[in-house]
Design goal:
Strand content: 5-15%
Low-confidence stretches: 3-15, 277-304
Number of helices: 10
Mean pLDDT: 83
Radius of gyration: 23 Å
Order of helices and strands: EHEEEHEHEHHHEHHEEHH
Keywords: GTP-binding, Nucleotide-binding
Family: Belongs to the TRAFAC class TrmE-Era-EngA-EngB-Septin-like GTPase superfamily. Septin GTPase family.
CATH class: Alpha Beta
Structural class: alpha/beta
CATH topology: Rossmann fold
Number of domains: 1
Largest sheet: 7 strands, mixed
Distance between the termini: 43 Å
Shape: globular
Strand order of the largest sheet: 2-3-4-1-5-6-7
InterPro entries: G_SEPTIN_dom (IPR030379), P-loop_NTPase (IPR027417)
GO molecular function, one term: GTP binding
Pfam family, one: Septin
CATH superfamily: P-loop containing nucleotide triphosphate hydrolases
C-alpha cells in the first residue's frame, strides 16, 4: 500500500473463493456503536448467503436496543458483484470515564493481539491447516466524541494512539443527525487537523511524507496537504486506483453515520417507507405547481418497501441517503474500495510487527534460560 511504502499489492487476477473481513466497533458509551451495527446488518440482509448468519449471543440484534455490556460478534457470508466475503462484526462495550478506560482499552488490545497469536501458533505447526480462518481485526471503526466541536477529547487522543499501533482505525461520527451541516464539517476539519498535522497519529490513511528539502520549514505544507499531493501524483503518473480511493477516503473521513429508528418493543426498524413516500409526493406536487415544465423527481429509496432512517417533525433522515450522511460511502469503503487494502495492511504491517516482537521475546527468554543454567549471572 502507498501509505506504508509497500511496493506490491494484492494481485488483481487472484480469485479467492472467500475473503475474510473482520470489523471491530469501538467508542464511548452512547456514541451510536450498536445502532450502527444493527443498521449495517439490516442493509446487508438481502446479500447474506442462506445459512451463514451467526450471532455469538442469541437475539442480540433483535432485542430492544440497550448499552453493550460485553463483547459479541455477528458473522455472515455475503456476495456482492460475484465476490464472496466472510464478514464478522465485533461490537464492544462502550468506554466510560476515568481509570476504567485503561482497563477497557487493555481488554480490546488483548483481543486484537490474540487474533495475531492464533495465526502465529498456526504458522509454527509442522503441518498447517490450509483452511485456517483469518480472525485478524482488519478495521476498527472508532466513534469519536463530539461533545466538544473545537478540539478532540483527551480520551480520544489517548485511545487512538494506543489502538493505531495494532489495527487500522477508521474514525466515524455516530448520531450525526443531531448535528447541522456546518457542525459536521467543523468536526471533520478539527479532527483531520489534529490527527494528521498536530498529533500525527497513524490511523488508516496516514502517510508519513518527508518534508521538502527545497522549501523552508515555515513554508512547508501541512501533513494532510503533503499526503494528498503525493497521492495525486500517483494517480496522475500511474493511474493508481488505490491512491484515488485513498484521496476520496481522506476527503470524507471521519464518516458521518445515522442509525435507524427502532420499535421500542421489538428492536426492529420502524417502517418509514409510507411516511417518506408521502412526504416526497407532497414535495413533488409543490415543485410541479411552481414549475410545470420540470419533470417529477424519482427516487428509488422513496419507493422501496422499507426505508431505514429516523423520523422528525420536519423531515425523515435516511440512513442510506448520501445527502443525509456517509453511511453508504463507509459501507462501500469496507466492502469494496478498501477491503483488500485493509486486509493487506493488517497482515503486512500489524501482524508482521506482532510476529517480530513475539519471536524476539522468545529468543531473549531462551537466552536467559541458557545463561541461568550455565551459571552466568544476570545483570
Amino acid at each position: 500500500m502507498l501509505y506504508n511504502a509497500y511496493s506490491h499489492k494484492l494481485s488483481k487476477s487472484r480469485k479467492d473463493t472467500l475473503s475474510y473481513l473482520n470489523v471491530m466497533v469501538v467508542g464511548s458509551v452512547g456514541s451510536g456503536k450498536t445502532a450502527f451495527v444493527r443498521t449495517f446488518c439490516e442493509t446487508l440482509k438481502h446479500d447474506v448467503i442462506q445459512g451463514s448468519f451467526k450471532e455469538s449471543k442469541p437475539m442480540v440484534l433483535k432485542d430492544p436496543l440497550r448499552p453493550t455490556d460485553e463483547l459479541y460478534t455477528v458473522s455472515m457470508h455475503i456476495e456482492e458483484n460475484g465476490r464472496r466475503t466472510a464478514l464478522t462484526i465485533i461490537d464492544t462495550p462502550g468506554f466510560t470515564t476515568g481509570y476504567a478506560v485503561d482497563h477497557q482499552l487493555r481488554y480490546i488490545a488483548k483481543y486484537i493481539d490474540y487474533q495475531f497469536e492464533r495465526t502465529l501458533a498456526e504458522e509454527s505447526k509442522v503441518k498447517r491447516d490450509a483452511k485456517a480462518l483469518d480472525t485478524h481485526i482488519h478495521s476498527c471503526l472508532y466513534f469519536i466524541d463530539i461533545k466538544n466541536m473545537q478540539a478532540m477529547s483527551e480520551a480520544d487522543k489517548y485511545i487512538l494512539k494506543m489502538l493505531s499501533t495494532r489495527v487500522n482505525i477508521i474514525p466515524v461520527i455516530g448520531k450525526s443527525d443531531t448535528l447541522t451541516v456546518a457542525q459536521r464539517e467543523q468536526i471533520k476539519s478539527v479532527f483531520r487537523r489534529e490527527i494528521f498535522d498536530i498529533l500525527q497519529i497513524p490511523i488508516y490513511g496516514y502517510i508519513d511524507v518527508e518534508d521538502d528539502d527545497n522549501v523552508s520549514a515555515s513554508q512547508q505544507p501541512h501533513q494532510m496537504g503533503r499526503m494528498l499531493h503525493m497521492l495525486k501524483e500517483c494517480v496522475e503518473e500511474d493511474k493508481d486506483e488505490d491512491a484515488s480511493a485513498l484521496i476520496d477516503y481522506l476527503h470524507s473521513m471521519p464518516f458521518t453515520l445515522v442509525g435507524y429508528e427502532e420499535d421500542p418493543d421489538t428492536g426492529r426498524p420502524l417502517n418509514l417507507a409510507n411516511i417518506t413516500t408521502n412526504s416526497s409526493r407532497l414535495l413533488d406536487e409543490d415543485e410541479e405547481m411552481a414549475s410545470p415544465v420540470t419533470p417529477k423527481r424519482t427516487n428509488s429509496r422513496m419507493n422501496s418497501k422499507n426505508v431505514l432512517g429516523r423520523r422528525y417533525p420536519w423531515a425523515v433522515v435516511e440512513c442510506c441517503n448520501p445527502t443525509h450522511c456517509d453511511f453508504s460511502q463507509l459501507k462501500n469503503t469496507l466492502l469494496s474500495t478498501h477491503r483488500d487494502m485493509l486486509r493487506l495492511d493488517t497482515f503486512e504491517r500489524f501482524y508482521e510487527q506482532y510476529r517480530t516482537e513475539q519471536l524476539l521475546n522468545r529468543k531473549v527468554k531462551r537466552m536467559i534460560r541458557v545463561d541461568s543454567k550455565a551459571g552466568v549471572p544476570l545483570v
